[in-house]
Amino acid sequence: MLEEREAAARLRVEGLREEVARLAGVLEAAEIELDRRVIAREELVEALAASAAESTAVTECEAEREPAPSPVPGSTVPPRRDGLPVTVLTPDYQRILGVVEEARTAGREPLKAREIALELGLESIPAKVEGVRSKARRLAERGWLVQEASGAFSAPRWPVPVPDAGPSAWSSTTGSSLRS
């Protein structure tokens, strides 16, 4: 009787292992599809921006000092370079940078996407956490954040330039659109 129960339990464990392996494959395929769609959207936005820039060419005398572009919801994250202010990023990205920077100054970094989401006041549900993770990855790919081998995110070791910024300037300058 015990051998029958052991055999049944062994079959159940094997079946569950197969199901986990199948689900891992499905998850990987879904993540790849999500990444492809994000990249496609970013490429489209860049192409449209380049097309618009070409059609509305500015004379060189007007463009002596090119101001930093203002953020547009859904716009791409520009690569970080010296002198580029955080204000070129949309409020959502600014808030993520602010949370990670505050964690660094408090000695609590690196932060996982879930921790960042909670700091932003978001629910700890997969959709919200994945949205934060996607934005944080994009910031890391462009040099605004550092993505650790563990998948957590930390602030770079150089100061992030924010106009008129004190430690509390992040919350006052970044809005709350990420909460919706």
What does this structure look like?
This protein starts with a helix and ends in a 7-residue tail after the last helix. The chain is 54% helix and 2% strand. The longest helix has 54 residues, at 2-55. The chain has 2 domains: 1-66; 86-179, Winged helix-like DNA-binding domain superfamily/Winged helix DNA-binding domain (Arc Repressor Mutant, subunit A, Orthogonal Bundle), CATH 1.10.10. Helix 2 packs across helix 4 (126-141). Strand 1 and strand 2 form a beta hairpin. The protein contains 5 helices and 2 strands, in the order H-H-H-H-E-E-H. Strands 1-2 form a two-stranded antiparallel sheet. The model is unreliable at 59-63 and 161-180 (pLDDT under 50). The chain is elongated. With 180 residues, the protein is mainly α.
